[in-house]
Specification:
Elements lengths: L4 E6 L4 H11 L10 E6 L5 H13 L5 E7 L2 H4 L5 E4 L11 H22 L5 E4 L4 H10 L9 E3 L2 H15 L6 E2 L2 E3 L7 E3 L4 E2 L2 E2 H5 L2 H13 L1 H9 L5 H16 L7 E6 L11 E9 L2 E4 L7 H23 L4
Parallel strand pairs: 1-2, 1-4, 2-3, 4-5, 5-6
Antiparallel strand pairs: 7-10, 8-9, 10-11, 12-13, 13-14
Helix pairs in contact: 1-10, 4-5, 5-11, 6-8
The protein binds 1,4-dihydronicotinamide adenine dinucleotide (NAI).
Length: about 325
């Protein structure tokens, strides 16, 4: 039998937490032969709610679930953790400026980065889900100098999955027929879902669609604004699909991505594709031997170039803003 893996989930009493924890405990995060120890982090006011979720987890009698511990203190929550899912974040309240939002999140992700640095396992892998995810990941990373920088990632997999589903629907094919789709840039409305390199049954996504107006006026905005459309329809933000994407990201990170395909992941830039080094931006990425690698050498046409640059510019501005606040 395999050794148990310790997984810390922050914001455990929230919506995504509720959709995520049961899937982790059932074995979907790491694989069906890996036992899991769960460590939940919440703010003090939400600890009791987290206890309720823990009672339900217990009541599932999951064979792989070895333990559940609940904390309101980051140092304890990240002690010995192998996988850290940073879901809890400070949402933008009405009238809040971007600098205030970044600062409020700095107050969460700085101490969490420090706690990961101080106490997590040597092989710790971090996925930031809480928004603004890319820049929150950068803040946590900046406060964990002893952890390899590449272990800090931001969730772009929901955007990736949304793009896959929209393209499959348009072409009336299965998502299994589509490979090598990429969402580039920031997890925000500026993100760029790219179908020029995608492969669909022997041709490219763009050629299969053959409809530039759909691409520009329908596909790209539908994917980028899907989160808002879900809030409008459901009266609450995407939770189950976000949890699903977190599962996909970590599963692939640990177990590898399939040969002949890639996914979208927010990983530290090595300078590829003109993305300034160190920015945590979404790239086409494969996972090999437990590490993300940015797919190299893709030709970027002018249409894509403009859109990638715009999203990356936004990431650079966010980095400048948190640098001014002394957070990176
Ligand atoms: P939610 O509001 O239901 O839950 C958030 C939880 O985090 C709350 O229980 C809150 O008490 C907790 N929390 C706040 N500060 C904390 C701290 N310092 N330590 C530990 N826990 C803390 O929100 P929901 O729907 O679960 O979403 C969580 C985050 O995920 C939001 O920032 C949301 O914008 C983001 N998100 C990101 C997506 C992505 O694709 N990257 C997709 C969907 C949501």
């Amino acid at each position: 039998a395999q050794q148990p893996v310790t997984v810390t989930v922050t914001g455990a009493a929230g919506q995504i937490g509720y959709a995520l924890l049961f899937r982790i405990a059932s074995g979907q995060l790491l694989g069906s032969d890996t036992p899991v120890r769960l460590r939940l982090l919440e703010i003090p006011q939400a600890v009791h709610a987290a206890e309720g979720t823990a009672m339900e987890l217990e009541d599932c009698a999951f064979p792989l679930l070895r333990s559940i511990d609940i904390f309101d203190n980051a140092s304890e929550a990240f002690s010995g953790t192998n996988i850290a899912l940073l879901v809890g974040a400070r949402p933008r309240s009405q009238g809040m400026e971007r600098a205030d939002l970044l600062e409020a999140n700095g107050g969460i992700f700085k101490p969490q980065g420090e706690a990961i640095n101080a106490g997590a396992a040597d092989d710790v892998r971090v996925l930031v889900v809480g928004n603004p995810a890319n820049t929150n990941a950068l803040i946590a990373q900046a406060h964990a100098p002893d952890v390899p920088a590449e272990r800090f990632t931001a969730m772009m997999r929901l955007d990736h999955n949304r793009a896959l589903a929209q393209l499959a629907k348009k072409l009336n094919v299965s998502v299994n027929d589509i490979r090598k789709l990429t969402v580039w840039g920031n997890h925000s409305a500026s993100q760029y879902p790219d179908i020029f390199h995608a492969e669909v049954n022997g041709t490219t996504g763009a050629k299969a669609v053959d409809d530039q107006a759909w691409l520009e006026n329908d596909f790209i905005p539908t994917v980028a604004k899907r989160g808002a459309a879900i809030i409008e329809a459901r009266g609450a933000s995407s939770a189950a699909s976000a949890a699903n994407a977190a599962i996909d990201h970590v599963y692939d990170w640990v177990n590898g991505t399939p040969e002949g395909d890639w996914v979208s992941a927010g990983v530290p830039s090595d300078g590829s594709y003109g993305v300034p080094e160190g920015l945590i931006s979404s790239f086409p990425a494969v996972s090999r031997g437990g590490r993300w690698e940015i797919v190299q050498g893709l030709e970027i046409d002018e249409f894509s170039r403009e859109r990638i640059d715009a999203s990356v510019r936004e990431l650079s501005e966010e980095r400048e803003a948190v640098a001014k606040l002394g957070l990176v």
